[in-house]
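Fold this complex.
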Amino acid sequence: MKQEIVEEIKGIVGKDGYSTDIADLYVYGFDASIHHKTPDIVVRPTTTEQVSAIVTLANRTLTPIVPRGAGTAMCGHAVPLKGGIVLDLTAMNKITEMRVEDLYCVAEPGVIYDQLNGELSKRGFWFPTTPGSAEACTIGGMVATNASGMRAIKYGATRDYVLGLEVVLPTGEIIHTGTRTLKNSSGYQLDRLMVGSEGTLGVITSVTLRFAVKPEASAMTIAAFNSLVDAGRCVSNIIAKPLLPSAIELMDSVTIKAVNKCMNVGLPDCEAICMIEVDGHPAAVEDEMKIVEEIARKSGAFSTEASADKKKINEWTQARKAILPSLSRYGENYVSVALADDMSVPISKIPEAVGAFQRIAEENGVIVGTYGHAADGNLHTKMLVEPHSEESWKAGERAVGQIYDKVLELGGTVTGEHGVAITKAPYMQKERADSLDAMKAIKKALDPNGIMNPGKIFDWEGSIISHLRYPAFCDDRCGGCQKS
Amino acid sequence: MKQEIVEEIKGIVGKDGYSTDIADLYVYGFDASIHHKTPDIVVRPTTTEQVSAIVTLANRTLTPIVPRGAGTAMCGHAVPLKGGIVLDLTAMNKITEMRVEDLYCVAEPGVIYDQLNGELSKRGFWFPTTPGSAEACTIGGMVATNASGMRAIKYGATRDYVLGLEVVLPTGEIIHTGTRTLKNSSGYQLDRLMVGSEGTLGVITSVTLRFAVKPEASAMTIAAFNSLVDAGRCVSNIIAKPLLPSAIELMDSVTIKAVNKCMNVGLPDCEAICMIEVDGHPAAVEDEMKIVEEIARKSGAFSTEASADKKKINEWTQARKAILPSLSRYGENYVSVALADDMSVPISKIPEAVGAFQRIAEENGVIVGTYGHAADGNLHTKMLVEPHSEESWKAGERAVGQIYDKVLELGGTVTGEHGVAITKAPYMQKERADSLDAMKAIKKALDPNGIMNPGKIFDWEGSIISHLRYPAFCDDRCGGCQKS
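Structure:
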């Protein structure tokens, strides 16, 4: 990066607002994905005006720029593939309005999900999307990826809560989309276009969010099955009843074993379990718990355990949250990596999907832990990879391709809540083949110089196992990666 | 229109699929707005392929084309301002998939809201947005305008239910956006961009919608007030409790008088009433009814009447639905017209907004009936105009401008659920001043020849009281209208 650009950046954010220290740059080359690439500079703006000045500079000098929240993205969203600027937005972390009587609040992009919910909770409200990274992820990142989590079945995804945004466009202009009202039909819904645009259409500098009334009561039922397919069937039987749970989490035998090994919760050691949560008025919760138990039994559960005890529910929820780290301890030589990890299928297709994933894993000689927010058809198939073995990565990549082909055949999507970035790009390009040109036309219209988070989504080419964070192996067909 | 274009259209849709009959063309020049303009041809396609062929032809020959559902739009969406083709989509009216176990269905754009809800209702589900024109409006039109209605406070607007779309782009290409899954983060959320784009970005030929579980029970409370401002305060007190009603309808004294004159429901003759609906589990409904009554009393209601009786609720709901026609019979020389008719303000600003609307009406010597979906801050100020008096129209237009200025000052939007088209265009351009260029850039990227529903939203110039359907008066500063 030219020294005059660094100097200009220093002029905008001051000497404490940026870093070109090699250790900082190395760290900011990671997110929670398998990828890595070192940026040229990290900038930490504190105001929208600073963001606008930095983006204007980037646009003028054709410098790539990548907005970054907490770096919890699983697919390489925050990895600066083409170098340039990483724009760390975590210093913009204030809740600037809290209007419970109007059902909305306004937050800067660096506000953390749990921080916001802490404030809402005091007032009887919540932002219920519940991402897995709730303790760390930022509201800006959630908007950029249309993040959600286990409660999307009842409460929707981030897109359903965004009322308005302040965005710095790739040309540096500041725009305001949406409103502070609960609905609007006033021109193109640009806020909804920005949701899920993964930092390629601008930098989100303020988010107006509606929120929901916190349910009075909740309860959880653990149903244990001798067949993963039966567990999948239980999910769609509950929905079709009709009964709308606040969450159903599915775990397969690999996942259960991994969690039981690491946590002391004693999940039933079986082929699959469903954790079914219902919430609402206490009387509704009581009625629905009974119905859930009955449906689970009829769907083949050999045991069910229900509880409305907060401590017990928390224990089970913690077990669910521990899946990801637990899987990494499954075998000595393995790490659990984010490959093929958040496809979504129509709910009734879960049994067929999970059955196929098991077969594909076996055929490719890879270990897969399947779990996920089954109530809305969102599955996670975390792959266990030997990070230093080229063969292991290649087998994983083969399995990923087959898994996604099956998902698309079943009418599903390759990503329900994590986004595309790098790791899902080739598969998303298959899924969205007929609308890629429209996406590219919009990108070109708003970012004519292609400076915002370049090289990803529709612009990605090559294998997903390149630009790897694991030094011992990288398929560098597309060049780049930390070795280069 | 050149005869060879007509011949080509005949080749695509057959001789029964179009009309150039002068009576047909005259009729298709209207929607539910104050505007009128006669098209050159009306085309009624029955398949996506036909739509694609017609749009391709329009794009090649630079012929304006306006998609049309039931024509219930209040702001001139379906009025073919620049002549050309009106594309009547009501013959594409099949529900093509009904997947209750997957919580989604797929409908052609001409499916009517009540028709869809009839099918869902049999299975225990509903699409709860509840537009005022439920009996007539089409799903395609609802998507195009991000329509909603009295239940948006609890259940959201159309945008919150669209999972995916099939769209014929302005170039004739057919694309598929979104998914058949309840959530997705797979590339730009083009479906959400298409929602509310008012036929300017393409023709919607299929809609994938999620739906909700129908509540077991509901109840309604009528609270009567001696002050419109107190009634407004009651609304935000309920929300801040926190208590999420399924609807709160507000009616001012003009509206109450008009309805009591036309319907035999005996609404309390007072300054304002709130109709508060709660729904859900029977126990929740019972609890919430009590809380609602208590809050209404504390907010100044001099009487409350509550009922869980379906017949009674239906009677009250019918009274609410009768407002629009009733207002037209308010005075002998007046018609109620869609001017300034669906602004939305933050809920807590309702008292200030309705007070200001009353003052503005008085100052301009116009009669305004204020009512609306107050729970989400969405107000309707139907103006009573003497249609043959230039002075009356001018006074109305002056009042509209002042009303919208107040709405924007309060942090509101000029349209909560109807859309922009013509009648809201100048005010929306004020509201969205800093993002108009971004909207235009997207429009240009997807519709380079500007054939889709031209001359509206950001492209509208001039006064809203032009192209009027009322022959005795038209401000034709911008040319056009049926007289030209």
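The first strand of chain B starts at residue 18 and ends at 19.
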